Amino acid sequence: MHDVTPALYDGAARTPAMRVEEACAWIAEDYPAKWLRLVGLCERAAGEGWPRIRRGDLFVLASQQGLPISECMEFRMDNNLWSVLSRYLLMFRRDLAGVIFPREADVDRVDLESMWRDHVALSTRFEAATWQEAAEGVRAA
User: Fold this and answer.
1) Using an 8 Å Cβ cutoff, are 64 and 104 in contact?
2) Please, where are the H alpha helices in 48-130?
3) Which pTM does this prediction carry?
4) Omega before 16 cis (within 30°)?
5) Which of 102, 99, 105, 130 is nearest to 116 (CA)?
6) I need a labelling partner for 91 at 20 to 30 A (CA). Which of 4, 24, 98, 101 fits?
7) Helix, strand, or coil here: 6?
8) Averaged in consecutive runs of 10 residues, what is the pLDDT profile of the chain (141 residues)?
9) How far is CA 129 from the centre of its chain?
10) Dihedral, CA of residue 31, residue 37, residue 123 and residue 121, to nearest 10
Protein backbone atom coordinates (compact mmCIF):
# COMPACT_ATOMS: atom_id res chain seq x y z
CA MET A 1 0.00 0.00 0.00
CA HIS A 2 1.12 3.53 -0.71
CA ASP A 3 1.82 6.03 2.02
CA VAL A 4 -0.62 8.92 1.96
CA THR A 5 0.24 11.90 4.08
CA PRO A 6 -2.25 14.74 4.09
CA ALA A 7 -0.28 17.90 3.43
CA LEU A 8 -1.22 21.34 4.63
CA TYR A 9 -3.43 23.03 2.10
CA ASP A 10 -1.13 25.31 0.11
CA GLY A 11 -3.79 27.10 -1.91
CA ALA A 12 -3.36 24.96 -5.01
CA ALA A 13 -6.53 23.47 -6.41
CA ARG A 14 -6.95 19.89 -5.28
CA THR A 15 -7.98 17.35 -7.87
CA PRO A 16 -10.74 14.82 -7.17
CA ALA A 17 -8.09 12.10 -6.79
CA MET A 18 -6.25 14.23 -4.22
CA ARG A 19 -9.46 14.67 -2.22
CA VAL A 20 -10.03 10.89 -2.28
CA GLU A 21 -6.44 10.32 -1.12
CA GLU A 22 -6.99 12.78 1.75
CA ALA A 23 -10.11 10.89 2.82
CA CYS A 24 -8.24 7.60 2.63
CA ALA A 25 -5.49 9.11 4.80
CA TRP A 26 -8.13 10.16 7.35
CA ILE A 27 -9.50 6.60 7.44
CA ALA A 28 -6.07 4.92 7.44
CA GLU A 29 -4.80 7.10 10.30
CA ASP A 30 -6.45 4.83 12.87
CA TYR A 31 -7.83 2.01 10.73
CA PRO A 32 -10.02 0.14 11.45
CA ALA A 33 -11.03 1.81 14.74
CA LYS A 34 -11.95 5.28 13.45
CA TRP A 35 -13.68 3.89 10.35
CA LEU A 36 -15.74 1.44 12.38
CA ARG A 37 -16.71 4.23 14.82
CA LEU A 38 -17.99 6.25 11.86
CA VAL A 39 -19.89 3.26 10.44
CA GLY A 40 -21.32 2.51 13.88
CA LEU A 41 -22.49 6.09 14.39
CA CYS A 42 -24.31 6.05 11.08
CA GLU A 43 -25.84 2.60 11.56
CA ARG A 44 -27.06 3.51 15.02
CA ALA A 45 -28.61 6.76 13.80
CA ALA A 46 -30.33 4.90 10.95
CA GLY A 47 -31.61 2.32 13.44
CA GLU A 48 -32.97 5.10 15.64
CA GLY A 49 -34.98 6.49 12.75
CA TRP A 50 -32.89 9.47 11.66
CA PRO A 51 -34.30 10.46 8.25
CA ARG A 52 -30.98 11.81 6.98
CA ILE A 53 -27.36 11.90 8.14
CA ARG A 54 -25.31 14.91 7.10
CA ARG A 55 -21.76 15.93 7.84
CA GLY A 56 -22.79 18.25 10.64
CA ASP A 57 -24.75 15.48 12.39
CA LEU A 58 -21.70 13.31 13.10
CA PHE A 59 -20.33 15.35 16.01
CA VAL A 60 -23.80 15.47 17.61
CA LEU A 61 -24.30 11.73 17.11
CA ALA A 62 -20.90 10.96 18.62
CA SER A 63 -21.53 13.10 21.69
CA GLN A 64 -25.07 11.72 22.17
CA GLN A 65 -23.66 8.20 22.08
CA GLY A 66 -21.24 9.06 24.86
CA LEU A 67 -17.95 8.98 22.96
CA PRO A 68 -15.11 10.87 24.65
CA ILE A 69 -14.73 14.43 23.35
CA SER A 70 -11.41 13.55 21.69
CA GLU A 71 -13.24 10.95 19.58
CA CYS A 72 -16.17 13.31 18.94
CA MET A 73 -13.77 15.92 17.59
CA GLU A 74 -12.51 13.57 14.86
CA PHE A 75 -15.99 13.75 13.31
CA ARG A 76 -15.85 17.52 12.79
CA MET A 77 -14.90 17.60 9.14
CA ASP A 78 -15.19 19.74 6.05
CA ASN A 79 -17.46 19.09 3.10
CA ASN A 80 -14.63 17.72 0.92
CA LEU A 81 -13.91 14.95 3.41
CA TRP A 82 -17.58 14.12 3.98
CA SER A 83 -18.18 14.01 0.22
CA VAL A 84 -15.79 11.07 -0.09
CA LEU A 85 -16.54 9.38 3.24
CA SER A 86 -20.27 9.34 2.51
CA ARG A 87 -19.58 7.42 -0.70
CA TYR A 88 -17.40 4.88 1.09
CA LEU A 89 -20.08 4.45 3.77
CA LEU A 90 -22.67 3.50 1.14
CA MET A 91 -20.27 1.11 -0.58
CA PHE A 92 -19.43 -0.51 2.78
CA ARG A 93 -23.00 -0.68 4.14
CA ARG A 94 -25.51 -0.31 1.33
CA ASP A 95 -28.44 0.08 3.76
CA LEU A 96 -27.03 3.47 4.75
CA ALA A 97 -28.25 4.69 1.35
CA GLY A 98 -31.59 5.11 3.10
CA VAL A 99 -30.18 7.95 5.25
CA ILE A 100 -27.12 9.27 3.37
CA PHE A 101 -27.78 10.97 0.04
CA PRO A 102 -24.67 12.09 -1.85
CA ARG A 103 -25.02 14.28 -4.91
CA GLU A 104 -23.13 13.65 -8.12
CA ALA A 105 -19.66 15.17 -7.82
CA ASP A 106 -16.28 15.19 -9.53
CA VAL A 107 -14.95 12.56 -7.08
CA ASP A 108 -17.33 10.11 -8.76
CA ARG A 109 -14.85 9.92 -11.65
CA VAL A 110 -12.24 8.42 -9.30
CA ASP A 111 -12.06 4.65 -8.80
CA LEU A 112 -12.90 4.74 -5.10
CA GLU A 113 -12.51 1.03 -4.48
CA SER A 114 -9.05 0.96 -6.04
CA MET A 115 -7.95 4.01 -4.05
CA TRP A 116 -9.21 2.38 -0.84
CA ARG A 117 -7.29 -0.82 -1.59
CA ASP A 118 -4.12 1.15 -2.39
CA HIS A 119 -4.26 3.42 0.66
CA VAL A 120 -6.38 1.81 3.39
CA ALA A 121 -6.78 -1.98 3.28
CA LEU A 122 -6.60 -4.61 0.57
CA SER A 123 -9.06 -7.06 2.11
CA THR A 124 -12.06 -4.81 2.77
CA ARG A 125 -15.33 -6.26 1.50
CA PHE A 126 -17.63 -3.66 -0.01
CA GLU A 127 -21.32 -4.51 -0.36
CA ALA A 128 -21.61 -2.28 -3.43
CA ALA A 129 -19.07 -1.36 -6.10
CA THR A 130 -20.23 2.28 -6.15
CA TRP A 131 -22.41 4.51 -4.02
CA GLN A 132 -24.86 4.75 -6.93
CA GLU A 133 -25.24 0.95 -6.91
CA ALA A 134 -26.02 1.07 -3.19
CA ALA A 135 -28.56 3.84 -3.69
CA GLU A 136 -30.25 1.99 -6.57
CA GLY A 137 -30.51 -1.15 -4.43
CA VAL A 138 -32.18 0.69 -1.57
CA ARG A 139 -34.60 2.49 -3.92
CA ALA A 140 -35.52 -0.81 -5.60
CA ALA A 141 -36.22 -2.55 -2.27
Assistant:
1) no
2) 57-64, 69-73, 79-92, 112-119
3) 0.89
4) no
5) 130
6) 4
7) coil
8) 54 89 94 93 95 92 83 85 95 97 96 98 97 92 76
9) 14
10) -30
